[in-house]
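Box 3.1 A note on notation
Throughout this textbook, protein chains are presented in two layers. The first layer is the amino acid sequence; the second is a token string describing backbone geometry. Keep the layers aligned when reading.
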Amino acid sequence: MSDYSISEIRKNDRYAVSQMDSLLKEEGIRRDENLDYSCGLYDEDYELVGTGSCFGNTLRCLAVSHAHQGEGLMNEIVTHLINVQFARGNTHLFVYTKCSSAKFFADLGFREIVRIEDQVVFMENSWSGFDSYLKKLKEETARQTSSMPGPDSGSAPAAEGTAAAGTETAAVVMNANPFTLGHRYLVEKAALENRLLHLFIVSEDASLVPFSVRKQLVMEGTADLKNIVYHDSGPYIISSATFPSYFQKDSDAVIESHARLDIDIFSRIAAALSITRRYVGDEPFSVVTSAYNRIMGEVLPQHGVELVVVPRKESDGAVISASTVRTAIKEENWPLLETLVPESTLRFFRSAEAAALREKIRAAENVVHY
């Protein structure tokens, strides 16, 4: 290793970034859009021979030049990235990798969580991480259902205002960036049609509206529905905004592998919590979401989970979307916002507490996205 050195590749260093892109391309990898740290491994002539990156608590975009493979350089890159993560306080780490590379990470102490054959392997550097996550979900469920008014002990109640909410246990996973009347419609339908609803709020902070605010608005906007158990999604329910695509051949492969990874993980969560239905909103405009829903509809029933696709709620003949809400906030169109969000969301964005967030949204170049 004495002939090599590792240093950070900064986003504003155009030459180093172009070197990294060229190396990744040579190894059949695209630079991921979501990176917050990158490093380069250089030879004695300061030529880039290896690279690796991080995003949050994940390792990404790892490559060593073909001319230098077999020298143990990838081990040096991964060790460096792990040290960077530990210095940040991230000790629970994840990696998405090709199936052919899984053994390498296993030898470094990573444990396989999910394998989608010939596509992707999702791994973590903990032997009890996912099991501990399932245990936490069960404990949250027991704690929250214990305070629910019900017809008998140990039974979750019907949603408020209904004679009965069925016998099934359902789940909704949402980002809510921010919480809209469309989100409310989906949650209310699921709560009314089932005995108990597990509501997972995506906790990755990859959205304009931070997780703490999104969670607050979801809980305030559904507080009248008394058969909901709230969960942070944690690191295992991965949003489409941060699912890596850098080593997959095309967008169709990305959609399929993400959906199948999500389904595999969710099926284990469903088994642990006795979930038999998953509710999603339809997406008339997004090819990606439509394909994702189609794959879930095909595969989830194989795991004993019914997929319920709910038509999107409309306002003035147009579907309500979080993108439209963010646009209204950006343009300070309060009359339009009143028709798109619950009173609790409107109250928050009008408040002094939201001043910095309003300014952030106004300053954003593009608010029409995930």
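The first helix runs from residue 14 to 26. The domain at 5-91 is CATH 3.40.630.30 (Aminopeptidase).
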